Amino acid sequence: MGDILSTYGPDILRAFWWTIKLSFFGGLGALVLGTIAAVMRVSPVAVMRFIGTSYVNIFRNTPLTLLMVMSVLGITYILGVSLSQDITQNAIRWAIVVIAVYHGAFVCEAIRSGVNTVPAGQAEAARSVGLTFGQTMREVILPQAFRGSIAPLGSVLIALIKNTTVAAVIVSAEAASLMQKIIENEGGSFAIFAIFALGFVILTLPLGVGFTSLSRRLAVKR
Amino acid sequence: MSASVLFDAPGPRARRRHALLTVVGVILLVAILAVVVRKMYTANQLQASMWEPFVTDRSVWRDYLLKGLVGTLKAAAISIVFAGVFGLVFGIGRLSQLAPVRWVCGIVVEFFRAVPVLLMMIFAYFGIYTQTSFFSADTAPLAAVVTGLTLYNGSVIAELVRSGVFALPKGQGEAGLSIGLTPSQVLRSIQLPQALTAMLPALIGQFVVILKDSALGYAVTYGELLTWSKTLGSAFSNTVPAYIVCAILFILMNYALTKLATLVQRRLSRRGRAVVATPGALTATVDQESTLGGEDVVQTDPTETGR
């Protein structure tokens, strides 16, 4: 384990830095897309609901690997839509877009499940004491819905971080592809796997603990 | 909570606003479709020759897509069986009376849930199976896919088993103990059967994850649907249509499974049974609205119960 760390230490750190960057930008995009989709899905306009639902059903049921492969081999090479002149940059940007679009569907579901934790009686009570629609949303529904969606949003974020490895099929900068390279150079040993696995445990474990305690602390007592 | 509680019956102003939003929505939808169609048209992807083979040429299905489908389903089926066994063993292990057994099972389960599936597959394939003669060159990719899917999803199922047992009313176990059953008898004949029924919808949801994640086999050269679609795309030089058909096949399979899960859940809740949500399972390929951490976070799935 020692020689691998001394030989590849900087490479490994760089690879995980890419993992973090992919997670950050992908997560940001997913949050935006997911929120928009969630608003669409609870809106009273049928067409908006249709768009939101179709988005979620299409991207939740398509393998991430397929989207990754399709983005570069299909959309860039054949349809000619590239996000950068540079081949590597293009692949990385597409990876971020794909991660955002794919997880946006799950963010939408997480937010919606937060809205669903609010009992209907809350809205009815708010209306019956004379609050307007805006007040009901602002004062009663959204604060509870937000608390209810913390835990599922945390799970989505953790999944997203782990799913950045799927970018390995088009990008060679991040952790999974570096691991494959090291194995090809050095032969397979459990030490190599342990290093990379540990990297992900370090990235995801604090998040899991943090989100769990946050969601417990903010949980609505019912 | 349904939208009907949130929104009033629309008055004249709200109706106008809704009509406007409908127009905006339709324009948005048409715009998205137009961009896609235009891009595909200018790249000559809408020519009949690109799509014809899917209907006219039998070999498209016989030599490519069906082969891929069989590969995907085979990997998924084997993984489901293994993951089920793994999950049952480690789930029961986490409920053991012996503290060391509980710890070991807990560490194993938490570890494999935190590590990306692709990492396990790549290590299993390039690190172990291609460097030892344990599996022949033909079966090594399948073995790697099954290894990755089993370890991850088995751990998730173990959590399901555990949270399913925890979700039962305490009285169930206490009643069993008070009529003189041993703790393991209580687990086996009272708690597990009820827990397994309650976790059925979440279990089917996990099958969707397995089916979808089998596409990761592409990275370890396993011949599944995505791999064969790519080959098909090169053979008929219709890459984009091949991927689109591949996506549609995946969506149909997963959508059907998801619907089945919802159906089972409805049935169970109609019979007044509690239903277990996937505990922090979102991981490999996020699925289902679920809770985090897994520790005794058991809840009836809020989205599906029609509250």
Query: What is the rounded distance between the termini of chain B?
Result: 5 Å
Beta-strand portion of chain B reads: under 5%
Helix proportion of chain A: over 70%
Return the average pLDDT of chain B rounded to an integer: 81
Structural class of chain B, by secondary structure, is mainly alpha
Description:
Chain A: Belongs to the binding-protein-dependent transport system permease family. HisMQ subfamily. The complex is a heterodimer of chains A (222) and B (307). Chain A is an all-alpha fold and 222 residues long. Chain A has 8 helices and no strands. In chain A, helix 4 (87-116) crosses helix 6 and helix 6 (133-163) runs antiparallel to helix 8. The model of chain A has no long low-confidence stretch (mean pLDDT 86). Chain B has 307 residues and is mainly α. In chain B, helix 3 (48-56) packs across helix 4 (58-94), helix 4 packs antiparallel against helix 5 and helix 11 packs antiparallel against helix 12 (239-270). Chains A and B meet through helix 2, helix 3, helix 4, helix 5 and helix 6 of A and helix 1, helix 2, helix 6, helix 10 and helix 11 of B.
Furnish the topology, listing elements before pairings.
The complex is a heterodimer of chains A (222) and B (307).
Chain A: H1 2-42, H2 46-60, H3 64-76, H4 87-116, H5 120-128, H6 133-163, H7 175-186, H8 190-218
Chain B: H1 3-6, H2 12-42, H3 48-56, H4 58-94, H5 99-114, H6 117-129, H7 140-167, H8 170-178, H9 183-198, H10 200-213, H11 225-235, H12 239-270
